[in-house]
Amino acid sequence: MMDGTPKPAAASTVISASALNLTFETNDGPVHALRDVNLEVGKGDFVSFIGPSGCGKTTFLRVMADLEQPTSGTVLVNGVTPEEARKARAYGYVFQAAGLYPWRTIGGNIRLPLEIMGYDKRVQAERVKEVLALVDLAGFEKKYPWQLSGGMQQRASIARALAFEADILLMDEPFGALDEIVRDHLNEQLLALWARTQKTICFVTHSIPEAVYLSTKIVVMSPRPGRITDVIESTLPRERPLDIRDTPEFLEIAHRVREGLRAGHAYD
Ligand SMILES: Nc1ncnc2c1ncn2[C@@H]1O[C@H](COP(=O)(O)OP(=O)(O)OP(=O)(O)O)[C@@H](O)[C@H]1O
Question: Residue 217's domain spans which residues?
């Protein structure tokens, strides 16, 4: 473990959280962002986290990414600590806003992490081409972010997260700000990308249809303190046309998610 090389995880578990607690100390007193969170994410899973604002979804993702330290409990990513996993470049992170640098071209934005990591120039150029093709943006390398629509910018930010070939993608409400039609399209493309690359994806959303459409596993959370109230294993096939959303199976899972959200919701 000292050399930072990830050990093969037991069975096919990629992320495992046990008895995880995180309390923020604030001027108004402690905020229990996560309370006794236990979760296993398998290799190739698409896991959505859904729950009302403030239930700790972002905090959980940030703990996995080593951007936040738990107060107690453990998280293992590929069998090692989040810090070791980060150093081994185990994951890419896609934020709520695309967060592209306006003074850099799309290619320049995607190249940035590769430059920081000291990748060879030729490899950088190859990677940029590959990931732009993966998100259907081939040919947009020399454009600036402002020349692209919101949906295209979000795809470019996904390409940036894919550039250093991490096996895990952490996505924090990446499509929240987009209109329904664009969002549908990006959901379809994300599923296709997931099928092609076989990545493990952790995805935060507020949308029940989005969670049900995308996921193999749906984690329902409730606030005050943030905890997991239900984990739903999807019975839907992996191949999912958009009209699967009208099937009884889909509606049944959506119903269970809604019930879980309702049960955990405080109406104050
Ligand atoms: N750095 C921090 N310091 C103090 N409190 C924090 C900090 N970060 C988050 N919190 C609090 O922890 C709780 C969980 O926040 P978090 O952002 O994880 O929720 P969320 O479920 O992602 O919400 P949203 O859906 O609105 O993004 C909230 O009450 C939030 O105010």
Answer: 1-90+166-268
